Predict the 3D structure of the following.
Amino acid sequence: MCGIFGIYGHPRAAEISHLGLYSLQHRGQESAGIVTAGVGGSPRATKTMGLISEGLKVAEVSAMNGDVSIGHTRYSTAGSSTIENAQPMLARFRDGHIALAHNGNLINATELRRDLEDGGSIFTSTMDSEVLLHRIAKSSATSPEAKLADALQGVEGAYSIVVIIGDTLLAARDPRGWRPLVMGKLADCAVFASESCALDIVGATTVREIERGEIVAVDRSGTRSIHPLPASESRKCVFEYVYFARPDSSVFGESVDRARRELGRRLAKEQPATGADLVFSVPDSSNSAALGYAEESKLPFELALIRNHYVGRTFIQPTQAGRDAKVKVKYNAVKEVLRGKSVVMVDDSIVRGTTTKGLVAMVRSAGAREVHMRVSSSPITGPCYYGIDTPNREELIAANMSVDEIAGVLGVDSLGYLSLDGMLESVPSGPAGFCHACFSGDYPTPPPADPEKLRFGCGC
Ligand code: 5GP
Ligand code: SF4
Ligand code: MG
């Protein structure tokens, strides 16, 4: 998964992108970058592995001139965690320069790349997104939006992108709209971001979501919108509401906090924990869902797990050994809250079960008498091909075990997941129009030809 940001027409565009990326750090922590172009500067890129605060130095960013900028935060798997794969990508071609930042996964990238390579194209990264650069450069259309439209014809899969072609900033979403992308305004400048929390941090106001299949272009001639791609059914990623987006954001035009609380309330109705003394969350991702659960079940919400905020998301650690060690580094239990109590531990999802198992052991050794685990999504039974780097089926605990078996492995007294219907009925403007493939097996596209390569290729 990744976070993307773009701004047009600001004399300090790079600094605004830098600030915006701070609010998109949760969407990717492996690498980050900023590109600037436009009036007052020649095209420049800066990229870093790791966190924005550590790698992107303020002085360096401030020295990047130009009034157009895009930025990117990225996470992927171990195989592709290299600086060559950091975004935004910047390339020069016969008409000038192109820069691109992508959130999503192109499911026919392998085929598209093979076609380009057959025609003599040379690639500098293993990212699926690089095919878009080549396809833009190959287009003989004259306007930037027509070039991008040309490039996107026949591209399958998930993409929310921000692109600079010459002095024009463009933003586009695939026709199914898997990933969010919002447009905002900062004084007279157009701003684009994966989530509205990145508009908040720079002081921009929200204008609207980029529509499915839409390309928006902004330059000195104004703002233009085209819908050049064949229409498809909406397939917004439900996991954005469950886990990925920040609760202070609005994605797909709706509040993430409201969605999560409703998921928690519905979970309490479907999976009550009779006789429990209190509810707690696994901070931070399940805070809002746990509040919803506590409210609905009329149980006190307590802070029983404390998270160390100087450690990144556990799941993002590329190796299993790294993930195991990180559970204790990342969380500690509050004995005074847990001792002798029957407790409800609410989490948003279980992927491999590794973190959860460690947490249950921690909660028990802190003195909890009974541990009832409640999950505000349905069991994850399949991989994602559309931009969330969930592991292969073999590593997904719910793909291989029944709920009772999982409860045994985790060491809980009871385990209850939200039903698929409950999940889809709880998210704003549900239940139709969502992708829920990793929960239901109902994939909106045929699986990619080479899923392994896809995972290691991009993992945005
Ligand atoms: P597990 O017990 O499966 O190892 O980890 C469960 C935890 O992983 C939950 O707290 C959930 O919030 C988190 N999680 C679920 N999906 C993702 C993901 O795509 N990325 C990251 N970083 N964490 C995730
Ligand atoms: Fe989201 Fe799951 Fe669909 Fe991937 S498969 S886009 S994570 S709902
Ligand atoms: Mg979590």
